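Input:
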Amino acid sequence: AQSVAQPEDQVNVAEGNPLTVKCTYSVSGNPYLFWYVQYPNRGLQFLLKYITGDNLVKGSYGFEAEFNKSQTSFHLKKPSALVSDSALYFCAVRDGASGGSYIPTFGRGTSLIVHP
Amino acid sequence: DTGVSQNPRHKITKRGQNVTFRCDPISEHNRLYWYRQTLGQGPEFLTYFQNEAQLEKSRLLSDRFSAERPKGSFSTLEIQRTEQGDSAMYLCASSPTGGSTDTQYFGPGTRLTVL
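Output:
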């Protein structure tokens, strides 16, 4: 079984400040981890993923995420938030073990609000 | 625009009616996924195709739901005898085989309202 938890329904941050959106996961095999962003009236857009390798993954729009195996976390970060980053963010996981499903499980989403 | 497209974007129907949605994936992608998203939730998997073969179906997909991808290109999702609980955003995504199989590209969704 695989699952994702996004403990915060909403994150508020001032423009220019660093932001963190939290994600923890549970998977029996190797975790493949993803972040997607959803703007109003738009489909989900891929931001970044961790499959293997360096624990710090860099993605689109200046976002990055750090894979922490001991804490089973994959928090999304950005050093300096922009008002235009305000959107809904989804973390997802799938089991990368051989024979595993290609289907990811998504978290409930975290609404990021960046204040001017 | 060469992204994933979905039609219609909005559908309002009366309870008991049948509805059909269409998804056109990115042309070179042979994997296609359908999800359902309700307010305050992340996308929930419904079904998955590789080419024309439907390889996985969620337990969420009751017998009133059917999906097809007859030629391995576009896909349709039909809901028969709609219920108010079917009101949701229906998302389609596609991904390629090969190196970036795990990156899914989503369409804008079809918002279904059942009155």
